[in-house]
Amino acid sequence: MNEKRPSTLGELKASGWTSVSVKEEMRRNLIAKMQRNTDIFPGIVGFDKTVIPQLVNAILSRHNFILLGLRGQAKSRLIRQLFTLLDENLPVIPGTYLNEDPYHPISPKGRRMVTEHGDNMPIEWLPRRERFHEKLATPDVSIADLIGDIDPIKAARDKLDISNEEVIHWGIIPRTNRGVFAINELPDLQPRIQVGLLNILEENDIQVRGFPLRVPLDMVLVFTANPEDYTNRGNIITPLKDRIDSQIITHYPRTLEEAKRITTQEISRKDIEIPVPEFMRDIIEEVAFQARGSEYVDQSSGVSARMPISAYENFLSNIERRAVANSDNDLYPRMCDLYSIIPAVTGKIELVYEGEQEGAALVANNLLGKAINKVFLASFPQPKRGRGDPDAPAEEDPYEAVIDFFSGGVKLELSDDMRFKDYRSRLESLPGLKQIVRRHFRSDDDREELLCMELVLEGLFHNNVIAREELDARVRYGDVFSDMLKGMGDG
Q1: What's the pTM?
Q2: SS3 of 384, please?
Q3: What is the mean pLDDT of residues 441-447?
Q4: Between β-strands 132-136 and 179-184, what pairing exists: parallel, antiparallel or unpaired?
Q5: Domain of 210: which CATH number?
Q6: Please, which residues have CB within 8 angstroms of residue 401's CB and are 6 or more apart in sequence?
Q7: Dihedral angle over CA of 27, 33, 39, 40, nearest 10
Q8: pLDDT in the model for residue 484
Q9: Tell me: the pLDDT tens digits for 244-283?
Q10: Which residues, in sequence order, are CB contacts of 459 under 8 Å at separation 6+?
Q11: In terms of domains, do 236 and 113 share one?
């Protein structure tokens, strides 16, 4: 049941409402959420033991803080949830620009309204969503944008001297008074603009066109930055850095399970039901992990968590495209669908050495190959790459039947647009392949078994045991030595 909110200053006083600072308000609501065991930052995955406790400590300490991390580490998502720690509604003096406290007006107009109307002064209630504002820092952001400037038209219209603070057109920061203000990518602000933030953080002393104004702003200031910009480029002036109370380091998902939870939560392709085996999801997520450790990828730029999200969406769409093209409603993944993620990968990695356009595609294919091989070796034995010691006792090679099949010069061709009946018959025509899967991978699903048979072929290729060539939308597996001899002959 919603109680009627006070509508005048007198009613507000009679209700017993008391004003507290924004930092105290957030602290109070945070403690209440923790006592109720409520999820403080829903949708944030993998930060429970690292970032969230530090963020909670900063709020409990009444700090202004900065989130420091590479792109795609949920920094913006975190700060956009801070408004949930504010009271649901806040009483303000109507018609003022600075969300003024009815008990403590700070502008000439606010003070005048309280004096003229007394307890009969009307009040408005500001929803908490309107108490959060953010600004993306760009080199063209000005002091007028953030803090304010003199409005000569207003001065002329109201016949006011330009030294009168009523002629000021307030910027976005003062208009967030009694709320949370966030600046994304702080280092991109020009140093002279950063200077303007110093007194807001420390003294509440604002200068507009040389006029010193004492405006006691009450707010929480939060920032985000990339570590490369924050520490190396020197784009944050030291006094401002010193006035930011807490620096909180974010990070990428640390396990495949966390990464898969994020992707499942964020993908837009929830309109189609496709049964995707876990090992296929592991491969897609593993591409991002491989990229974050690759010598070819610029690690200072980072590999966003948005990469596997986009990749997974492409993967699902390729399955859908094949089903529509074949008119068979065969919505089940194949290994060829993994290669549809390449455009999502190339668009989200920065190479150490930027070269031709093909460079990113080669790196992306290499990353995918490493991801496939890692997942393959998690379930299947390591293939042998040679004959080894001739005097050592012979060991059984689980892949011998498959290798012998290709060594006879036979090739196996699979295509992206192949109908399921042909896809099945070609895989099952390869002797020993199904037996390998049944020996090392437990599955009650025939489709998953066929997919694992493809995984074995890909794993053998990535371990240089068999050859593989791509011809448009077709993949052809064969004998590695025959391909080597063919290449020598072509030369």
Answers
A1: 0.85
A2: coil
A3: 90
A4: parallel
A5: 3.40.50.300
A6: 431, 432, 433, 435
A7: -10
A8: 53
A9: 999 999 999 999 999 999 999 999 877 788 999 999 999 9
A10: 372, 373, 376, 377, 380, 383
A11: yes
The total domain count for the chain is: 3
Q: Is the pLDDT of residue 472 over 60?
A: yes
Tell me the per-residue pLDDT of 140-170, one tens digit each, with 9 for 90 and over.
Answer: 888 888 887 776 666 667 666 655 667 777 8
pLDDT exceeds cutoff 70 at 313 = yes
Domain limits for position 206: 9-249
Q: What are phi and psi of 86, to 5 degrees?
A: -90, 160
**What is each CA distance from 350 to 69, 225, 290, 297, 313, in whole angstroms?**
16, 18, 14, 6, 21
Exposed/middle/buried for residue 397 (C-beta within 10 Å: 0-12, 13-18, 19+)? middle
369 & 413 share domain: no
* Residue-averaged pLDDT of the chain: 87
Size of the chain, expressed as the number of residues it contains: 491
Q: How far out from the chain centre does Cα 171 lie?
A: 29
Based on the fold, state whether residues 229 and 260 are members of the same structural domain. no
Listed residue (216, 337, 205, 219) closest to 284, CA to CA: 337
> Quick one: which H or E segment has residue 125?
strand 124-127
Would residue 4 count as lying in a domain? no
Q: Is the pLDDT of residue 118 over 80?
A: yes
Each residue's pLDDT tens digit, 383-418: 986 544 444 444 578 899 999 999 888 899 998 888
CB-based burial of residue 3 (10 Å sphere; 0-12 exposed, 13-18 middle, 19+ buried)? exposed
Question: Do 303 and 216 fall into the same domain?
Answer: no
Query: Does residue 392 fall inside a structural domain?
Result: no
DSSP sequence for 177-213? TTEEEEEESGGGS-HHHHHHHHHHHHT-EEEETTEEE
Give the single-character DSSP code of 272. S
Structure tokens at 404: 């012998």
